[in-house]
């Protein structure tokens, strides 16, 4: 085969996953591509059997990887380290690309000179994932702050291998989930140009897996480990105050406060509540001005976390926070901040326009 222009890495942990769909969606492209299927702690033969004729395609290679660590970071990093193409992409074994996605990303990168191209995301049943809530119609020259890129956690799409190497970015080892939080955030902040293929073929998030790793309920400390890792990174701590505040707003909403909602049926023990308080303190310390843009409902829940409130109190405040459209969810305590970029009104409006 010709030298690939894009190396796509797929990590698979069991032959029960329908990885052949992911691989097929990659090779159905005009650009020269290579798919590296990293077999994490599972024999190559069953994966090859599932791939069928795709296993014989010269654009497909199987890479064994055994580390004994229940984290997707290891196999993804192994695949990225084995890449030689100028562009790389990661793909979940349950996910697929719409036909023409990679060709569309490459064309946009060529037009804009971007080092990262973000794809449109949708779920398999059709629902659009409204991230990033960027400026309307913006497709090139995206900015982490003005286009709220921190809300796109996963480093999906087309990524410059040179940029990843220059910034020293790989998936965070050892984490059962959230291994992509730090590399994606720091890439959006440090890439020389970010583009958004907002009308192109989508990256489709699959729903077939009996148990997706990212949906497993774990101790809060495990879920917030990626957050503590990110806020401790020197590259983020040295960033402009605007960048730190934008990242902090996303971390509070999507990681700290959402951890309460995700456990409204399973409950929060003393260790969980302590981990919530530790995570909240770390994020607010990164950018204290984040408090100004949170809605009244968000601030009330954050204050309750810091005060060591009971599970019942936290769940009640979490439910109140999710009653979207009520005054408490629409405006901050200081009305002068109501139209700030990260305040609820502008954030919600921008999210709607992504759909």
TrEMBL record:
Q: Which SUPFAM superfamilies match?
A: Nucleotide-diphospho-sugar transferases
Q: Which Pfam families match?
A: Glycos_transf_2
Q: Where is the Glycosyltransferase 2-like domain?
A: 8-167
What superkingdom does the record give?
A: Bacteria
Protein name per the record? Glycosyltransferase family 2 protein
Organism of origin is Flavimobilis rhizosphaerae
């Amino acid at each position: 085969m010709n030298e690939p222009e894009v190396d796509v890495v797929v990590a698979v942990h069991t032959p029960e996953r329908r990885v052949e769909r992911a691989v097929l969606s990659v090779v159905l492209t005009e650009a020269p591509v290579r798919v590296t299927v990293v077999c994490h702690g599972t024999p190559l033969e069953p994966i090859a059997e599932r791939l069928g004729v795709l296993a014989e395609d010269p654009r497909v290679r199987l890479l064994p990887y055994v580390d004994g660590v229940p984290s997707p970071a290891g196999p993804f990093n192994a695949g990225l380290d084995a890449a030689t193409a100028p562009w790389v992409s990661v793909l979940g074994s349950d996910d697929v690309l719409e036909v023409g996605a990679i060709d569309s990303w490459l064309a946009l990168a060529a037009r804009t000179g971007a080092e990262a191209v973000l794809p449109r995301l949708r779920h398999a049943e059709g629902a659009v994932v409204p991230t990033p809530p960027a400026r309307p119609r913006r497709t090139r020259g995206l900015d982490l702050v003005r286009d709220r890129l921190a809300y796109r956690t996963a480093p999906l799409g087309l990524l410059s291998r040179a940029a990843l190497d220059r910034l020293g970015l790989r998936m965070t080892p050892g984490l059962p989930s959230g291994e992509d939080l730090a590399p994606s955030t720091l890439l959006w902040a440090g890439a020389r140009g970010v583009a958004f293929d907002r009308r192109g073929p989508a990256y489709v998030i699959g729903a077939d897996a009996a148990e997706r790793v990212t949906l497993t309920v774990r101790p809060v400390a495990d879920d917030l480990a990626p957050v503590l890792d990110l806020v401790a990174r020197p590259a983020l701590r040295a960033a402009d105050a605007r960048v730190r505040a934008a990242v902090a707003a996303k971390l509070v909403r999507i990681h700290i406060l959402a951890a309460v909602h995700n456990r409204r049926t399973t409950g929060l023990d003393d260790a969980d509540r302590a981990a919530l308080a530790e995570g909240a303190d770390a994020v607010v310390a990164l950018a204290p001005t984040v408090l100004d843009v949170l809605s009244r409902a968000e601030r009330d829940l954050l204050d309750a976390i810091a005060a060591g409130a009971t599970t019942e109190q936290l769940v009640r405040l979490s439910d109140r926070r999710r009653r979207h459209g009520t005054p408490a969810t629409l405006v901050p305590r200081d009305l002068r901040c109501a139209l700030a970029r990260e305040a609820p009104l502008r954030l919600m409006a921008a999210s709607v326009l992504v759909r």
